[in-house]
Amino acid sequence: MENYLSDNHRATFYKSHRERSSVVYKKKHRKQYDREFADLTQASSSMSVLEVGCGTGIFLRYLEACEYREIVGIDMDENLADVLEDLMRSEIYLDDVMTILKNKLKNRRFDRIVLLDVAEHLQLPVLLNLMKLLRSHINDDGRLLLRVPNVESPWGLRMFFGSFDHVTPLGPGRMFELGNMTGWSCDGCFSQEPGRILRRLKERLLNVTIGALLSYHPEIWTANLLAVYKV
Known about the structure:
The chain is α/β, with parallel strands linked by helices and 231 residues long. The chain has eight helices and seven strands.
């Protein structure tokens, strides 16, 4: 896909229009991240966690609520400082991600590294370089978790193409290729299903019904998917 906006123009536009309101941490977030992070990556509170692209900090608040041993968050948006000031146990860096990793976090390793809704914002060469660099920041038997819009699903297309700031389309097939290209091994791709059981069952029924009518259909139907990697 040809991108008509330079990285600098996109970054400037994104910062100027970004929603920076603080998100209140709720019980539903605990359940969501227990499913999408702790269960998928087999994480425990004794571990160290790095989040790249921490945004307004809802995942960091989850980690603090669960009392993870070491919590570090990075985001390129320096204007997030006020929104994140309530985080008491998190180590926050607001600057260029690659610069932070190569300097302030040089030689630091983590048990879990998380990128939630980040990869699709990066040009493919930048994403590849970032994932290669993150290999030097993961502990033995560590895991990397990515969440992205699922462009192999018709529901994920709206998620991806809803913003000009989404530049790299990703789906299950590409997530495995991404691992092969950067020295990671993809353990698997997983659906991001609704938290409410009734809605989850409705979506599953709809997807099974549509799939039965098609000779070719997505492996994963949900609008977003999660991928787990190890070195």
